[in-house]
Design goal:
- The chain is mostly helical.
- The protein has one domain.
- It has 13 helices and no strands.
- The N terminus is likely disordered.
């Protein structure tokens, strides 16, 4: 080895180490400001989703469950399609089709349909159980699908948060199980898959386009489903049913998913998923004001515990 090689070797090693992903000390690849913005967007998505069950309960006051879901998807698909057309967004690449199909099955059709069917015989408090388990399930799916490796601290906080939410929501519903649980647990699995796949796609294309194309692809099915369902189910546009349908389609199905997927793309699926630990509690608060349901003193206690768990998961290494 020459003297010149010896002199240049340390600098080459330093450059190689600096280029290596293992050399970074930051738990997240995104800058601090971007992470904060991503967290805010994901939190806005959670807030929008927290009104989904109360708005669905309102919608079911005058619209049948199958008609409600079909009209919800069709309305949001028309809005999304109009935005894509106005901005002349090109059709997604072939490599994105499979992922969009998962988003359609899990988020656009599966979760709304199964939870709507469950809410025919279940209260919003009991249905919130599925949301209490959704953050943990989404984190597991993200590990399997994207290769994320959250730390032990992350999993400990995630499990503790899920346990707190489940204990609270079961207590609120009196601890009783119903036939709606099959719908709820089924929606849990397919929604977690849809969230994970949508978050992965949002790293390759804007989040609103992920949502928009998924809705557009489902438009023919939604129109056909609405045409059939409206022939056999009741349909009455009262103040509550109209407001519930409009919010479910625009606020939850479209705008909520837009900011949610954008947030997941920035801070990662595991961390974004844990923000949903707050969703059941927000849903129960809305149910008090909008549906006249009642909460116990356990609500603020659980809220404090959940906020601690969320804070830990956001600081934990992924």
């Amino acid at each position: 080895m020459t003297a010149q090689d010896s002199a240049t070797r340390p600098s080459r090693i330093a450059v190689a180490e600096a280029a290596s992903p293992r050399a970074t000390t930051s738990p997240d690849p995104a800058p601090h400001g971007s992470r904060r913005a991503g967290t805010v967007m994901a939190a806005l998505g959670v807030t929008a989703f927290s009104l989904t069950f109360p708005s669905t309960a309102w919608g079911l006051e005058g619209i049948g469950p199958w008609s409600f879901v079909a009209l919800r998807v069709a309305l949001s698909a028309v809005i999304a399609g109009g935005a894509l057309l106005a901005l002349r967004i090109p059709f997604p690449a072939r490599r994105h089709w499979a992922g969009l199909a998962v988003v359609v099955a899990g988020v656009v059709v599966g979760f709304p349909l199964l939870t709507t069917l469950a809410l025919q015989t279940s209260t919003t408090a009991h249905a919130a159980v599925v949301v209490g388990l959704l953050p943990l399930t989404t984190a597991v799916f993200s590990v399997l699908r994207t290769g994320a490796r959250p730390s032990r601290m992350f999993w400990t906080a995630a499990l503790a948060g899920a346990a707190a939410v489940i204990a609270f929501t079961v207590q609120q519903s009196g601890g009783a199980l119903s036939t709606a649980d099959l719908y709820l647990f089924g929606s849990l699995l397919i929604c977690a898959a849809g969230y994970t796949e949508g978050g992965r796609l949002a790293r390759e294309m804007p989040g609103w386009q992920v949502v928009g194309w998924a809705l557009v692809l489902c438009l023919p099915l939604a129109v056909a489903g609405a045409a059939v369902a409206l022939r056999y189910e009741s349909f009455e546009l009262t103040g509550h049913s109209t407001a519930g349908l409009l919010y479910s389609a625009i606020g939850s199905q479209f705008l909520g998913l837009v900011v949610w997927y954008r947030g997941m793309a920035v801070i990662g699926v595991p961390k974004a998923s844990q923000l949903q630990l707050a969703q059941p509690l927000l849903t129960l608060v809305w149910s008090v004001f909008l549906l006249g349901e009642h909460l116990t003193i356990a609500a603020p206690v659980t809220a404090a515990a959940v906020l601690v768990c969320i804070a830990v998961t956001q600081r934990a290494r992924v």
